[in-house]
Structure formats: C-alpha cells, structure tokens
Design a protein that fits this description.
The protein is α+β, with helices and mostly antiparallel strands. Helix content is about 60%, strand content about 10%. The protein contains eleven helices and five strands; from the N terminus they run αααααααααβαββαββ. Strands 1-2-3-5-4 form a five-stranded mixed β-sheet, with helices on one face. The relative contact order is 0.06.
Length: about 400
C-alpha cells in the first residue's frame, strides 16, 4: 500500500485534492479554528460527563471501572486536538474504543464529523460502515439499565448517520464556495484579458489612422523639399513660397500628429480606401440609422462642423456610431437622442442617450469592447468619457473632447 494509492490516509496538513483551500491544509490554526476546536472539545466532554454520571448511578459498577472510564474518556476528548491532522486514524481508533467505552462516545461523534468534512466520500463510507457495525456492540457489552438494547442501537445508528450527513453537507458547502470563488477569480482574469486585448487592438489602429491623416501633408512637404533640392537656381520668390509651404505643412503635420495619438478606433481592414468620417458626416450617420428603423433625434449645435479638427470629428462620429449601435441592440424601438455642443476653445461635448425599452425583446449579449475602446480614445485625446444606466432605466454615453481655439 502506497500513499498515492490511498491519498485520504495522508494527514490533513497536506492539501485535500477534492477541496482546495480546506482549512485542514493550514499549518496554523486561525481564531475561528480555535473556537471550533474548543467547542467540539467541550461538546465531547459534556457527553462524556453525562455518560460518567450514568455509570456512577449504576451501583453495580465498581469505582475502579468508573475511574478508568473517566480517564479513557478524558484521553479521547484530548485526542480531538489532532483531528485536523489525522482525521481518518483518529476516527478509526475512537470507533474501536467506543465499542467498549461509552464515555468516549462524544469524542467518537466529533471524529466522525471531522472525517466527513475533511475527506471525500470513499473513506467516509468505509468508516461510516464500520461505525454502524460497532453501534450495537457497545450497548450489548455494556448495556444501559434505563434503556433497552434495541432503543440504544437505534439511537446509536441515528446519531452516526446524522453526524456523517451533517459533515458531508458542510464539505459540500465548502466545495461550492471554493468553486464559486475560483469561477469569480477566473471571470475577473478573463475580463482583464479581454480589456487588454481590446486596448491592444485599438492601439494597433493608430498606424492606419496616422497614414490616413498625415500622408497628404507629408507628401506635400516632400514634393516641395525635393523641388528646392533639384532647382537650386529657382527665383527667390519661388524658393520663399516653397519654404513657406514646407513650414506650414510641417506645422500642420505636427498638429495632426498630436491629435492622432488619441485615436484608437479607426477603420478596420478593407476600409483604408474609404473617406474618413468627420463631424460633418454625422448627419449621414443619423440618416443611415433612421433608414435602419431607429428613431433618432439629432441636436447638433456646432455652427461650422467642417471646421472641427479631423481627429476630434472622427472621435465624435465613432462615439455617436457606437451609441446608436448599442441602442439598436439593447433598446430596440426606443428613441435615441444625439446631442453635440461646443466650439473652439470650449471643446466638444457629445451625448448619446436612450430611455428604457418600452416593449419586451430578446436580450442581445454585449462584450463591452466598444465602450472600452471609446474610453481609451477619449482619454488619450485629452478628453473623458462616461457611460452607464440612467435614473429612468435607460442608458447614456457622454464625452468631452478638447478643441483648441
């Protein structure tokens, strides 16, 4: 026989393979462990004292046997302090002892409870079967004058079954708690990984966005610089004009670069040749949503949408697009309100909100990755974005983005 073949014979100080996080796997007792152990000891001692009193009441029992019973019962109760480390061995020893020693009955029941809590079903079944076989032996060898043999046997069997059942219920509850904690920890880790992946994918789109915004200006700068290089004899006026174009293009390229750093969500694969959305194309987005059956109210208070910075306009467009998409998925039939306010020096505030759905519908699960990407976009652009349920049961997305004067 090896320890790998019978792992339940190992001390409880070693980890229980079926119950991760079992208290028995600790090397030091906690305050709760001390309280439980003291309570178990007192209960066993109380049952033992009651048995001693009953034995003393029987005048036919010699005093020397009463003294031996008391000492053996006290030793059995003290042995309970090792029940967390050796639950199986202690239960087997007390089962055999209780066959001839009624004072050890309390400690025996506590040991059976410990086995049911700290060990899987197989060893509990073996020890429980032995306990049921021993239950009629003690009243046969040392009968209680006030109770019949049949009644004593039935009471012993019921107590064994009750204690083992209670212990297995406690073990099942602990297993459930451990499982739920592991699932919660795993779900939290997976959510963190999904969020990191969404941020990584969003940042990968920066390169595409930079190409779309900066390619024209850098190409113009390169052409004029090349002209100066290959025409050193050009008239001063033409050289000055080309230098001015280079300076302006470089300045605008740097300004666009500052804005594009905050862009995380750009066009996906296959959209690189399509015109980039701006604040001026917000009306087309709303019209498209209306054609799809969504009730949309647009309140655009920007006097000149075309004057808004390109990157900021795209961000506003993406926020409105994501808000309309989420409203169509999670609140079909509800009217969506899109409000855009602000101007140079004040920044742009965009808000997309919808009330609670008025009709029952099949809930569409969402991953939340779109809102994560929008939050990252707004944050890196120097703005902020908030989203969440409204007091009336609806949902709202509100963002502020800078717009330099």
């Amino acid at each position: 026989m090896t320890r790998t073949e019978y792992p339940w014979l190992l001390p409880s100080a070693m980890a229980d393979p079926e119950l991760p996080g079992d208290r028995g796997s600790r090397t030091r007792r906690t305050v709760r462990d001390w309280a439980v152990d003291i309570t178990a000891f007192l209960c066993a001692a109380g049952i033992g004292l009651a048995a001693v009193v009953a034995i003393e009441a029987d005048k036919t029992t010699p005093d020397v046997f009463v003294l031996i019973d008391s000492l053996v019962g006290a030793a059995a109760c003290c042995a309970l302090w090792v029940r967390r480390r050796w639950p199986v061995g202690l239960a087997v020893a007390l089962t055999l002892l209780s066959a001839v020693e009624p004072v050890a009955a309390g400690a025996w029941l506590v040991a059976l409870f410990s086995v049911a809590v700290h060990r899987p079903f197989r060893p509990v079944a073996f020890i429980g079967a032995g306990a049921l076989l021993v239950a009629p032996v003690q009243p046969y060898l040392r009968p209680d004058p006030s109770t019949s043999f049949v009644a004593s046997t039935i009471i012993g069997v019921l107590l064994v079954l009750l204690v083992l059942s209670w212990g297995m219920v406690v073990r099942s509850r602990r297993q459930l708690v451990v499982t739920l904690r592991e699932r919660a920890r795993r779900a939290e880790a997976e959510a963190g990984l999904r969020a990191e992946r969404a941020q990584r994918l969003a940042r990968e789109d920066i390169a595409r966005e930079m190409h779309d915004v900066l390619a024209h200006r850098l190409t113009l700068l390169s052409v004029h610089a090349g002209a100066l290089e290959f025409r050193p004899d050009a008239p001063p006026a033409e050289v000055a004009r080309a230098a001015g174009v280079i300076r302006d293009s470089a300045h605008e390229a740097l300004q666009d670069l500052r804005e594009i750093i905050g862009v995380l969500r750009g066009p996906r694969d296959g959209d690189g040749d399509r015109p980039q959305p701006t604040l001026a194309t917000l009306d087309a987005l709303v019209a498209e949503s209306r054609l799809a059956g969504t009730k949309v109210t647009l309140d655009n208070r920007i006097a000149d949408p075309a004057a808004a910075p390109a990157a900021t306009g795209r961000t506003v467009y993406r926020i409105a697009q994501e808000g309309l998409t989420n409203a169509r998925k999670h609140a079909p039939g509800a009217e969506v309100t899109v409000t855009v306010t602000g101007g140079p020096g004040r920044g742009i505030t965009v808000e997309v909100s919808n009330p609670a759905p008025v009709e029952p519908f099949e809930q569409v699960p969402g991953s939340g990755q779109g809102l994560i990407g929008l939050t990252e976009r707004a944050t890196l652009a120097g703005g902020r974005l908030d989203h969440g349920p409204e007091p009336d049961g609806g949902f709202g997305v509100r963002a502020w983005l800078p717009w330099s004067s």
